Amino acid sequence: MAAAPLRVIDFGRVSPLRSQTLWHAIAHGVSGGGPATLSLMQPAAPYVSIGYHVPYEDVDHERCSDAGLPVYRRMVGGGPVYLDDGQIFFQITVPVEDTPAVRSAAVAGLLAPAVRAFRAVGVAAVLEDHGDIVAGGRKVCGHGAGQIEGAVTVVGNLITRFDHAAAASVIRTPDEETSVELERLMRRHVAATPADPEAFRDAAVVEYTRALDRVAEFSHLTADELDALTELDERFTSPSWVEEPARRRGSTWRVKVKSGVWMAAAASGETRAALSVVDGRIEWARFADPMLNGAAAAVEDSCRGRTLGEAGLVLCRRGEPGMRLAGLLGDVEREIRR
Questions:
Q1: Rounded distance, CA 235 to CA 305, Å?
Q2: What pTM was computed for the model?
Q3: Contacts of residue 172, Cβ cutoff 8 Å, sequence gap at least 6
Q4: Other C-beta atoms within 10 Å of 337: how many?
Q5: Which of 80, 153, 248, 259 has CB 3.0 to 4.6 Å from 93, enough for a Cys bridge?
Q6: Are 323 and 314 in contact (CB under 8 A)?
């Protein structure tokens, strides 16, 4: 019996909209009985993509509009991301019955061939526990994953150039100071690679065919997928789909830069806390409370280098304002862990 095919489709440069809707159409085809598919593409212009569960207001739409950046909502998870032609996207889409039932195991299994492809082109990549592909401690491949109809799709990117300032600017933050800290974290923890895109594509084809025990078959979209693509183009440009008013952010805000690296903020009345948390410890903090009486800087200094729990205990010794701030840190810790 001949080995099952792994369909490979390299779309080349495509519009921002199609760089999202093409692989969603593939998921529709795989769900309908089509073969597992590895797809690749490069957006021809910059835009912003938000995950399925991300509140619309997590994106700074005024800045996006001023920069001429369209915003699309994808059907898989992850936060708001800035995307441009310095990134080559790859997507692996397989029938749901071919993946482990545990989500983390399914994602790790479908990213492992990508890690080997990075290594094949000279990038010392490793897969961290929470799914980030890193090299030298810096994220070199973002990813999103989810089930679309009867298919599981994991998306990733080869970053050949990364605009940290643009990536930070499109995310709505509580204030400008927090935005500056977010950009600093991105510059420190997200990196482009010198890998050749064509060599990476070839390595990805080799590694995914080997991992899935299939034979590569270079192909194209089916008629059914093209019909789905037309519908998806309409859906993804519909304000009702992008804005999804049912999704609302609570009083706590967070952004994941990479595994173990977070920006977060919480507020209750006039009491506010904004933090960067790296490997479980506070690296940067800004506190506000009417009763701090000019002591905010000293309180912030006392919390740096501590875990959120340790910082909460320190704050509780500061009386009523400290206890209010400790409560916000508890909110932040729960938000990061969820």
A1: 46
A2: 0.92
A3: 57, 58, 59, 60
A4: 7
A5: 153
A6: no
Instruction: Record the tokens describing residue 84, joined without a space.
Output: 């441009």
The answer to whether 159 and 210 have CB atoms below 8 angstroms apart is no
Return left, alpha or beta for 262; rule: phi > 0 is left, psi -120 to 50 is alpha, else beta: beta
pLDDT tens for 194-248 read 899 999 999 999 999 999 999 999 999 999 999 999 999 999 999 999 997 655 5
Strands (E), 176-321: 215-218, 252-258, 261-268, 271-278, 281-288
Provide the 3-class DSSP secondary structure of residue 101. Answer: coil
Looking at residue 267, its pLDDT comes to: 94
Six token digits for residue 255 = 């952004």
Cβ atoms 304, 310 nearer than 8 A: no
What whole-number distance in Å separates Cα of residue 87 and Cα of residue 42? 6
pLDDT at 248: 58
| Two tokens, residue 1 | 């019996």
Contact, 212 vs 116, CB < 8 A?
no
**What is the dihedral sign for C-alpha 114, 192, 156, 206?**
negative
CA 182 from centre of chain: 15
Q: Which domains does the chain have, with CATH numbers?
A: 5-243 (3.30.930.10), 252-337 (3.30.390)
**Consecutive H or E run containing 64:** helix 61-66
- E strands, the chain, where? 5-14, 37-43, 47-50, 71-73, 81-83, 87-95, 126-127, 133-135, 138-141, 143-148, 151-159, 215-218, 252-258, 261-268, 271-278, 281-288
Please report the pLDDT score of residue 249 as a whole number: 62
Three-class secondary structure of residue 256 per DSSP:
strand
Regions of the chain with pLDDT less than 50: none
